Amino acid sequence: MNAQAPALQDPRLNRPEPLTPPLGDGGFFQRDRSIHPPAHAPGYKSSVLRSPRQSLLSLENSVSEITGPVFGHNDLGPLDNDLIRNYAKDGDPVGERIIVHGRVLDETGRGVPNTLVEFWQANAGGRYRHKKDTYLAPIDPNFGGCGRALTDDTGYYYFRTVKPGPYPWRNFVNSWRPAHIHFSVFGSGFAQRLITQMYFEGDPLIPVCPILTTIPDKDALDRLVAPLDLNASTPFDSLAYRFDIVLRGQRSTYFENRTAGN
Amino acid sequence: MPQPLNYLKETASQTAGPYVHIGLIPAMAGFDIFEKNFSNVLVTPNTQGERITLEGKVLDGTGSPLRDVLLEIWQANASGRYNHPTDRSAGALDGDFRGWGRAGSDFDSGLVTFDTIKPGAIIDKAGRKCAPHVNVWIVARGINIGLNTRLYFSDEAANAADPVLNLVEPAVRRKTLIATRGERAGKVVYSFTINLQGADETVFFDV
């Protein structure tokens, strides 16, 4: 399995400018369900009772879906994107110090500015700070495991953390999750809402994970794997991984359409 | 060969997992980390509109409540306007109403609640009046991609002409989108049940 190559993800490198979406009604591009995991994926056992059996009813986007919540810097605290410091009690957390950074783009290659990105993860030993996690690996007293950031004007975000460890879970008798960081992204409209997981280049648990292999499209799976980014690392401090996130594109906006036609 | 059509592909969804609370509702995971937290309370004392509580459960294919589910809602204000720059409709903005909230289900009962206001009716792009509704997004362990649905209100005559409800066939499934109005201790409570799978399966949308 190949990790995503940054040169193929970054439109600044392989495309002179973003595609211009055609004028339209402000709706989002139709979601390509063939690249997403199906609701019913029996290898991931929890999905069996939690997946609808009826078809989804397709809905043309109205103002209810094109709009979504707006967040600002006053929603965040100054350390929210620094998981090394935001729960530190008497020192730094234990583990591989890393920077995770990238851009939130839409399908036309445009950056999605000022959007909220939230992330959470286990500690270096694979233990979550959650009252329902009973794995025997210990809690790290200096690590909470969550953070959040607003993208800048170009859609760029970054945060600092320690690399999470793999952990066992009750699916098959001997199932282990690859190291991963959960991501929650908003975009500009509620129909772009997305939760996903970022994995790390070269992790041999990736091809055998029952959750990751719910994804039917190999390229879509590879796009969840963040490559090591030595150029963004800080010598004698932190390695870095690059993770770009693509949200649905939009057929211009409601507002532009009105000024042109109404 | 034609020119390549270089749209990027959407990032694939993955389940939020059982510990979604760590990132999105850390207090439910059992710790305090952020100075400011998002919640299931959408109203401030100055918010305009009728105060309501939305209260319900999400059930799996055996009828058992999900006790690790997370819901987000997105709705218009009492004047039928969304707090977002691309909603240019006539209703007045309410600076004390963002219109969004999130809630985790209770770890024992599975109950999910929101304190909000009843939204006003929306006018869609074709000029049709849409009955008041709340947009709902559901994620959990075992849900591979977030599920979208809507909640309508049992006391709204406008439901009969709502363009989205009228798309639902067979018509008997429309009732799965209606929350039932009741009162408790002088407060208005709308009760809902979301069935992920089975006989009374809730209508989910590809939006």
Keywords:
heterodimer, A: 262 residues, mainly beta, five-stranded mixed beta sheet, four-stranded mixed beta sheet, 5 helices, 12 strands, globular, disordered N terminus, disordered C terminus, B: 207 residues, eight-stranded mixed beta sheet, two-stranded antiparallel sheet, 2 helices, 11 strands, 4% helix, 29% strand, Intradiol_dOase_core (chain B), Protocat_dOase_a (chain B), oxidoreductase (chain B)
Low-confidence stretches of chain B: none
Q: Tell me the fraction of residues in β-strands of chain A, as a range.
A: 15-25%
Order of helices and strands of chain B: HHEEEEEEEEEEE
Determine the number of helices of chain A (DSSP H or I, runs of at least 4 residues).
5
Percentage of residues assigned to helices of chain A: under 10%
DSSP strand tally of chain A: 12
Taking the alpha carbons of the first and last residues of chain B, their distance comes to 33 Å
**Structural class, from helix and strand content of chain A?**
mainly beta
Radius of gyration of chain B (Å): 18 Å
N→C terminal distance of chain A: 51 Å
What is the makeup of the main sheet of chain B? Answer: 8 strands, mixed
- Which sequence of strands runs across the widest sheet of chain A? 4-3-8-9-10
* Mean pLDDT rating of chain B: 96
What is the average per-residue confidence, as pLDDT of chain A, rounded to a whole number?
91
Global Rg of chain A: 19 Å
Order of strands, main sheet of chain B, comes to: 3-2-7-8-9-10-1-4
Secondary-structure element series of chain A:
HHEHEEEEEEEEHEEEH
Strand elements of chain B, count: 11
Regarding quaternary structure, what we see is heterodimer
Number of helices of chain B: 2
Largest sheet of chain A: 5 strands, mixed
Keywords (chain B): Dioxygenase, Oxidoreductase
Domain Intradiol ring-cleavage dioxygenases (chain B): 54-82
Protein name (chain B): Protocatechuate 3,4-dioxygenase alpha chain
Pfam families (chain B): Dioxygenase_C
